[in-house]
């Protein structure tokens, strides 16, 4: 039987970016907060001398233990879903900081088009441009309304970027708080080629600091060392924006945050209209606790947020056949298969140095920045070259036709180790009525809770988008004048392997209509006013960018909404 604990004003489930930001904002306002994190605690010292590719990349040190909790997957309802037994298509973080501890630092704002995607598409092209079954919808909030929260997040994180604004993205109220990162020879080569074709490249906005920085909360961090150990690693210098070195220290020094690690929430207590608390299990002892609270905030990863709502019977589950319900709808992923690879016989680059967000991108073919009238897809993607830093185990680029082992393989591996550049793309993934999350009827986790089931496949929309972006990437690579080059621009059926992107979104989406959204624009549940579901689970579709910046902005808006709710109660919109 669960041990009942004293009631608290606020309990937060998950202590990554969203949980950390909300904890900092509430505790600064004097609110007592309990933060529950299923994994272990972390400090910067944990990462000292941690440049171990085998440990962190191949063996997934910072990721979820899939023997205890995983997801099941199928392409469609005719298939039986099976569990993901090893980290493949995406990796799910574990421990304080969550995905914010092991992300690479690439930090974008979504385009104004994204937030009003259906309205803007219909206005420009007509209703018939949207394919049957596509479930794109407006977010209920505009870019201009969200911009102040983007600004606040970027100042907290010290995001580095170009001084001159880029014409292809939304307007900014303030410049980036720190200058752009360095431009390496490979980045300069990419930018020169892109500009020669009439495109508008700019430095990737970076959560890896370009210089020492002190944020508005008084948190001071050192500049990036370009060591190349960002994605899937914690930053030993504290240079990468991470909840552990930014917002969590602010919350902890107020004395108003009680952070409980190894605390896995398995249920939201509720009466169908309001939550009364949560039940969690101590993962070390197996003890079960009931934590009553006035307000419950779900701030964990996409799959965990949705699974807790479904297992707790809070909100109406999505029914794909009927098209009704809201919890589980509009799952989306990302399209990252299109790229152009160039091999140079006459150039070498120092590719083993770098940073997770070191690079350049252009958005001429992102969102609706170009005419889609004669194209068989909507939206688009960014085209970029990054120098994140190669690592010896995973990096082994050789031209097609090279044997996969033996003398020639070894020779060409060495020859092209620092002579291979990639122009990559990241395409949007739009929502469809038959892509969704629900509870698996067969498989359960180590605590007896049903696993989340993912029903998803790539569509013709994704294939057409990848083909288009791949061709554009090839044009840029050709202008970079490699000795030989290869283009990849085909999309097959989605599979849970190999790794593609950890940018999963949707399942508890926001909007202005309770019949098609689970939360309002403050991330407050329509069906339970004292529950806030925050994070990428609220995205109605996925853009052509990494999601972290938008997650951060929505977290600041949610924190503002929670404080308003504590004063007045009721729905915030």
**The CATH architecture:** 3-Layer(bba) Sandwich
Q: Which percent range describes the beta-strand content?
A: 15-25%
Rg is 23 Å
Query: CATH class, anyone?
Result: Alpha Beta
**SS summary, helix count:** 12
In CATH, the topology is named: FAD/NAD(P)-binding domain
The total strand number stands at 20
The helical percent reads: 10-25%
Number of domains: 1
The stretches of 5 or more residues where confidence is low (pLDDT under 50) are: none
- How far is the first residue's CA from the last residue's CA? 39 Å
Apparent shape:
globular
Query: Structural class from helices and strands?
Result: alpha/beta
Question: Main sheet, how many strands, which sense, barrel?
Answer: 8 strands, mixed
CATH homologous superfamily title: FAD/NAD(P)-binding domain
Overall mean pLDDT stands at 96
Keywords: FAD, Flavoprotein, Oxidoreductase
Family: Belongs to the GMC oxidoreductase family.
Protein name: GMC family oxidoreductase
GO molecular function: oxidoreductase activity, acting on CH-OH group of donors
